[in-house]
Specification:
Length: 210
């Protein structure tokens, strides 16, 4: 047992127990810390990036070489922005979670899942969709190859495969089968027309324009 004189609750000569002193000191320093952090956060918020939303904000996209002005919430995906606000229904919503490729677009030369991309994040970048491929009534060579070899059944996965093939052949104009397999492996055809899709990609190689 601790000697009485050392008992933590024993009043000191100035009338405050050590326990009370420690409690008071702890609360005091916590309050000071919280106040300091709040001050720091306040300073960062003032100096940091501007907060957008949650309501609608102006968003400007460059799609197939044309400016598209929208008012959307910052949380809206590129897929939703284009399909429901800009009437561009070529890109399809299938899984809506970045695994099937039906919503594939080309952003700044690279394929991207529009269902997993925020529209607000791709302002100022060139965005290409399947609607921008044909020239008048003339299909893009990749679209033509898909028709020629009958490389589609449902049509839902097709625009995504076409965009992925376009991106592939712009990068490798004479892509090998292996490169094509790798380039298209982010897209899924649930009914199994992969053989025809590969055939279309090989048919279009060398003729697909950049
Ligand atoms: S709908 Fe975007 S990856 Fe499936
Ligand atoms: S052709 Fe679309 S899922 Fe197979």
């Amino acid at each position: 047992m601790a000697p009485k004189d050392d008992h933590p609750d024993k009043p000191e000569s100035f009338g405050v127990s050590r326990r009370d002193f420690l409690k008071t000191a702890g609360v005091g320093s916590l309050a000071a810390t919280v106040a300091g952090v709040a001050e720091e956060v306040g300073a960062q918020t003032t100096a940091g990036p501007k907060t957008m939303g949650p309501g609608e904000v102006p968003v400007t996209l460059m799609v197939n070489g044309k400016r598209v002005d929208l008012r959307i919430e910052p949380r809206v995906t590129l897929l939703d922005a284009l399909r429901t606000r800009a009437d561009m229904t070529g890109l399809k919503r299938v899984c809506d979670r970045g695994s099937c490729g039906a919503c594939t677009v080309i952003i700044d030369g690279r394929t991207a899942y529009s269902c997993s991309t925020l529209a607000i994040d791709v302002q100022g970048k060139p965005i290409r969709t399947v609607e921008g491929l044909a020239t008048g009534n003339t299909l893009h060579p990749v679209q033509q190859a898909f028709c020629d070899v009958d490389a589609l059944m449902c049509g839902f996965c097709t625009p995504g495969f076409v965009m992925a093939t376009v991106a592939l052949l712009e990068k490798y104009p004479n892509a090998t089968v292996e490169q094509a397999r790798k380039g298209l492996d982010g897209n899924i055809c649930r009914c199994g027309t992969f053989v025809r899709i590969m055939e279309a990609a090989m048919k279009a190689k060398g003729v697909a324009r950049a």
